[in-house]
Amino acid sequence: MIIVMKSGSTQEQVEAVERKLRDLGFQTHPIYGEVKTVIGAVGDKRLVKPHSIIHMDGVENIVPIMSPYKLVGRELISEDTIIDVDGVPIGGKELAVMAGPCAVESEEQLMEAAVKIKETGAKILRGGAFKPRTSPYSFQGLEEEGLKLLAQVGKETGLKIVTEVVDTRDVELVSQYADILQIGARSMQNFRLLSECGKADKPVLLKRGLSATIEEWLMAAEYILSAGNPNVILCERGIRTFETATRNTLDINAIPVVKERSHLPIIVDPSHATGNWRWVEAAAKASIAAGADGLMIEVHPDPSSATSDGQQSLKPEKFVELIKALKPIAQAVNRTI
Ligand code: PEP
Ligand code: MN
């Protein structure tokens, strides 16, 4: 970090700051300018509380150089992370496709979706057993029965399972059935849940919060990594803006920004980002073109009867068409699907 001294700060003040920093284990490198002096401090910023320096005489400002997300950022790990979900890679050349209904409703519904999804070569089945609904009167999910159906269909089809966990008390239970634990947008800043998933032995799919900045999202991922779980997949799912024509606004910018700042894989959920099945294909194509490592897409055998998110769910045959339409885009950016 850099400590910027006020114009006219005295030599004694500069030396006092340097002494304080050295006591905290930093190396200091003062640069004396015509008007201002700055002190370069090299060391572990986690050891210093900014207020212990900012109140010292002559100090104007503290400018961090390292990102606050040490484990998620590229400073310590520069190589892209490829997460191995029991033989299915996420983050490599092959795009990861996760698809399935918003909510698990029945064995028939899940199996019908899964069979078609599998046909396309997609390897991961999604489905919510615990649904974080905006209204307490909406369908809340089949809970453990839904988890059992997911595990059963996963076993029969060979698809890996990703499903949401909404409560710290359920992390162990969901881990018994799922291959990937999903943390939903509404839970992105549930720090206890993040830490609990950080102790789990399953990869975590971390969706971006409805109004979260990229930094807040990466800090949420940092909670999981710092609790011991290095396997985090980020998922951009649209953010809330003034625009009401779509359910959310897909932040395409987030893809290159996250890629630059973090080594973790990032996928996109164009279903929740657009809120309308007709716009899912365009948003999915744009995401792949922009460098996303995969997609999460809602697919329902009969969207008109879905208990949640039917308006944005693709019919299985439309999903098959979507995957075909994505192939040339993937090829253009040197990926496979
Ligand atoms: C979901 O994946 O069905 C879901 C609830 O998504 P989000 O958390 O992004 O709203
Ligand atoms: Mn949904």
Protein architecture, described:
The structure is a single chain. This protein is an alpha/beta fold and 337 residues long. The chain has 11 helices and 14 strands. The chain has helices at 11-23, 50-54, 107-119, 144-157, 171-177, 191-198, 214-226, 254-261, 270-274, 277-289, 316-332; strands spanning 2-5, 27-32, 37-42, 59-63, 83-85, 88-90, 96-100, 124-126, 160-164, 180-183, 204-207, 232-236, 266-268, 294-298. β10 (180-183), α6 (191-198) and β11 (204-207) form a beta-alpha-beta unit. The two termini are 42 Å apart. The protein binds phosphoenolpyruvate and manganese (II) ion (MN). Manganese (II) ion (MN) binds at residues 102, 272, 298, 308-309.
Keywords:
337 residues; alpha/beta; Alpha-Beta Plaits; TIM Barrel; four-stranded antiparallel sheet; 11 helices; elongated; binds phosphoenolpyruvate
What is the compact description of this entry?
The protein contains eleven helices and 14 strands.
Q: Which fold name corresponds to the CATH topology of the largest domain?
A: TIM Barrel
CATH secondary-structure class of the largest domain: Alpha Beta
Bound molecule kinds, no repeats? phosphoenolpyruvate, manganese (II) ion
What is the number of domains?
2
Task: List low-pLDDT spans.
Answer: none
What percentage of amino acids are in beta strands?
Answer: 15-25%
Number of helices: 11
